[in-house]
Amino acid sequence: MEIDYVRSRFVKHFDGQTGNVYASPGRINLIGEHTDYNGGFVFPGAIDKGIMCEIRPNGTNKVMAYSIDLKDRVEFDIDDEKGPKASWARYLYGIVQEMKKRGVDVKGFNTAFAGDVPLGAGLSSSAALESCYAYALNDLFGENKVSKWDMVLAGQATEHNYCGVNCGIMDQFASVFGMEGKLMRLDCRSREFEYFPFDPKGYRLVLVDSVVKHELASSAYNDRRKSCENVVAALQKKYPEKTIETLRDADWDMLNAVKDEVSEEDMKRATFVLGEKDRVLAVCDALNAGDYETVGKKMYETHHGLSKEYEVSCEELDYLNDIAREDGVTGSRIMGGGFGGCTINLVKEDLYDHFIADVKKKYAERYGKEPKIYDVVIKDGSRKIC
């Protein structure tokens, strides 16, 4: 995203004056799926695609906002109890309210924003938008600067309270805390996190978007969450002396001890979750050692688990994964909740052109449409540009 692009629109729509420019990225998650609500680990990183905004206080109590991509303009009062109806403006209204709750004395401002996060690809454009404005409002109006965690939680609360999305914290966390050349292992239970080096020389990180989204996603998500809760209930009954709040607190011996107390389906779901916990920790060791072959192996194992144990894949995603394996791609897996969306692939440079051509050709032959390809690079999180 070019500063000049955003600035030219801001100047055009707001009296020829300039303001401050801020940016926040979208994110990928290398490994660690369906672990957040099980108290486990996720492994995200900020990417080189995101949201950029220009913003200038206007001396009033009104927010005047222009979405460059949608060519839509909205105005609302800072103290308006209901806020705007436009769905994109609800995110902006929500972050204003949540930052106010955290002690930032937000005043009226003019703003324009644009993004290059591909919509529908699972890269969290909404979290990038929330994080961009949380950072900007804190910088402009925060006499007592709030913490980065406050910004993360303000973004999550915006989703919950104003947009009707009961999301976790990974997306906003990655957008705010991202660092160039680093991935982050986030403990979803304690919120502790650690940076790990991600400098895969000789490899490229590429998303292959299946351009499908099956309607099973929301009900299937609830079913799988219930399966995990069923196993936790069995573990609590079996081990009353232990504190078992989520599957994070179980080990393999404990899980095997209750296999006759739970359904075969519930057992499969729990097997995936415990396996994913182990895989995330193995990837930590591999990254510290610069061992990207092991990272790739664990990505394939995660895809297998998501497909066969957690059963959140679909025919199209499995086919993309099969092509990657056949072409010798180092690592490939579903990224996100499943039932559509992207695979994330770790591809050797010398295989890249062949893989991209092959996956486009074979996928189009089978499904009548080409997948979308997004190269991503790990970059910094929320920041002021100028």
Automatic annotation (TrEMBL):
Cellular component annotations (GO), alphabetically ordered: cytosol
Keywords: ATP-binding, Carbohydrate metabolism, Cytoplasm, Galactose metabolism, Kinase, Magnesium, Metal-binding, Nucleotide-binding, Transferase
Gene3D superfamilies to which the protein is assigned, alphabetical: 3.30.230.10, GHMP kinase, C-terminal domain (3.30.70.890)
Example of a GO MF term: galactokinase activity
EC numbers: 2.7.1.6
Residue ranges annotated for the GHMP kinase C-terminal domain, each copy included: 286-363
Family as reported in the entry's similarity comment: Belongs to the GHMP kinase family. GalK subfamily.
GO process terms (BP): galactose metabolic process
NCBIfam families named among the record's database cross-references: gal_kin
Domain Galactokinase N-terminal: 9-57
Species name: Prevotella pectinovora
The keyword Repeat belongs to this UniProt entry's keyword annotation: no
Domain of life where this protein originates: Bacteria
Domain GHMP kinase N-terminal: 91-178
Lineage, uppermost ranks: Bacteria, Pseudomonadati, Bacteroidota, Bacteroidia, Bacteroidales
Protein name per the record: Galactokinase
Keyword Nucleotide-binding applies: yes
